[in-house]
User: Fold this.
Amino acid sequence: MTTPCIIRGLGHCVPETRLTNADLERMVDTNDEWITSRTGIKERRIAAKGETTVSLSHQAALRALEHAGMQAEELTHILVATFTPDSYIPSSACMLAHRLGLHGRTCMDVSAACSGFLFALETARAFVCLHPEAKVLVTATDVVSSRVDYSDRGICVLFGDGAGAAIITGDTGVAPAGCGRVVDVLLATDGSVSDLLTVKGGGSGSPCKPGETVRRDFFVEMNGREVYKYAVRAMSSICKTMMEKHGLTKEQVDVFIPHQANLRIIDAVGSRLDMPAEKIFTNVHKYGNTSAASVIIALSEARSEGFIKDGDTVLLSTFGGGFTWGSALVRF
Ligand code: UT7
Assistant:
């Protein structure tokens, strides 16, 4: 029996700097028509010098704390979902806790690529089950631009940087109005196809040597077509499983928030679920694929813009390298 969890606060932060399709036309052999028709992306946000996973997570966390009406000192656990940590050691979660003025908390990074938010959310639920008084800060942040080769037109048009944050606590039955109740989270992985989407360089399987120039494998490498097909199958299948498990018809899902990687993937998943387009929240045109941050930025934005209303049942879904994928059901 899981302890019910609530989302007490949501926040997000994206860098100010915009990289538009017109900008990319000047950098690589591409054009707005190709990018828009294949991905739906018009622009993405790119971290400025000094903007990092920890600094963006910090801003998103402060907004989530304000939204929750909580002080940082109340937090007991800090999770940062990312594949672009500021460093391998220390973890971004330890650095984030320090920025928040916290000492002695349980802090760790979670690695699940673009599915990072849902894997961290499930970890937060586990902490709350073990420690019902826990107040867990989950941030999901990627500075993908730090691992993108801006001469690779197949990759550089797709990604952007950003951070989202959620504060997860146990549900004591007296949650303030406006909180979301996390009904369920389902997660899955498949390592047999992991080579289809990788960032290998600098890992122990592909170490750097002193004085070596940066190798190709330091950057995101992907077989886009195969990732696309797998992502559509995996996200639609896990969402169907979630809906069946909870006896939900598509009419009973008020808002669907899929991973914001590509409008064609979003449309294909929506169509397999027979979900009306007006229920599907998208912001991929503004931010591109922000990896782990994608669905939490979308959730935070959808809530603050009134796309999600009190009483709504919200279905989320993610997909990323690993492969990793998941779904979450949240009632507001
Ligand atoms: O979180 C999961 C992360 N990954 C994803 O979501 C990506 C999933 N995959 C996709 O979204 C799509 O596969 C892409 C958008 C990446 C590519 O779309 P596609 O329809 O699968 O195109 P393609 O890779 O098969 O390339 C078609 C053509 C190729 O030219 P040729 O060989 O047909 O002459 C590419 O070289 O498009 C060319 N191309 C481009 N042309 C203009 C590739 N990138 C570009 C570009 N601008 N930026």
In short: The chain has a mean pLDDT of 96. The first helix runs from residue 21 to 25.
